[in-house]
Amino acid sequence: MKVVFTRVAIFLALILGLGLFAVAAPATIDSMALLSAGQMNDLLVALMNRNDAESYNLRSRAYYASEQWDAAIQNGERAVSLQGDDAQYHLWLARAYGQKAAEIGNPLSAAGLARKAKAEFERAVELNPKNISARADLSEYYVQAPAIMGGGLGKARNQASELQNLDPATADWVRALVSEKEKKYGDAENNLKGAIARAQNPAQYWMSLAAFYRQRGRLDEMQSAIQSALAQPNRPSETYYDAASELLEAGRNFPAAVQYVKTYLSSGELVEDAPAFRAHYLLGQIYEKSGDKAKASAEYQASLSLASGFGRARKALDQLH
After folding, report:
1. Could you tell me if 299 and 281 are in contact, meaning their C-beta atoms sit under 8 angstroms apart?
2. How far is CA 298 from CA 257, 280, 287, 288, 301, in A?
3. Where are the alpha helices (DSSP H) in 251-275?
4. Which residues face 128 on adjacent strands?
5. C-alpha closest to that of 43 among 26, 25, 58, 22
6. pLDDT tens across 62-89, in order?
7. In this predicted model, what pLDDT tens digit does every residue of 119-164 receive, in sequence order?
8. What phi, psi does 222 have (nearest 5°)?
9. Model pTM greater than 0.70?
10. Cα separation, 262 vs 89, whole angstroms
């Protein structure tokens, strides 16, 4: 389970509104390294002539990270058509459908994509019932989507029960989503604190609590939760990225946010959930909010040098000039 861009925005807009079995060498470990590092231009070149399921999946994830939803869906569908028994391929296709649904202006089209996302999430869980990420994503769908699209808080609670033996902390996180949806904010806060207490490495749940406090306007507590996340001895490197994102959203302590992104970029431990090109974009956003347009421009250009198809950075750069 991850609380950054991979899932949280998927269904915000929903309430409003075949493959050839070509023979090719499988994607290499180097391709995975490029994906984790966020070097999307290089990754897409490396995969250009590969037609195996894993290569289509990696291409889909590269396009997903740079918010090119149509290409993410097209490649994700090819991966699933070539290897339909892989839970991860279904999970990534579900995410692509969900993000496309969130950005579509036509409510009917969005609803159709949302139902496809639900079916793919459920298929991922069916194929691998122990896939914690798939159950977490499916739970979030059930919480956020209206009943007409297959959502339902009872369904989310059932997923929390299934998760209890697999990962109690994630089960508490799902219960927090349900409580927050019901506007039972005290229960949601307690659920998140329960996740922190039960997690082997609680940094991500401290960041979930920080996001909860930010959304409630409890900004001092947000900053305290961020510090607790960063103080964890085995915190994931992307905790710095998440911390900077929260500070930007809150409009607080931009100097610290800048340092957090720089620490992440220099860590040598970049991950797919926080690719380098998005980190440079985040740093550009912080500089722009701080009034330093020159540094912001340099960061947007750095982002595009790694992922030229990342329209968000292109738009931000154009608006500076």
Report:
1. yes
2. 17, 9, 10, 11, 5
3. 254-265
4. none
5. 58
6. 999 999 999 999 999 999 999 999 999 9
7. 999 999 999 999 999 999 999 999 999 999 999 999 999 999 999 9
8. -60, -50
9. yes
10. 32
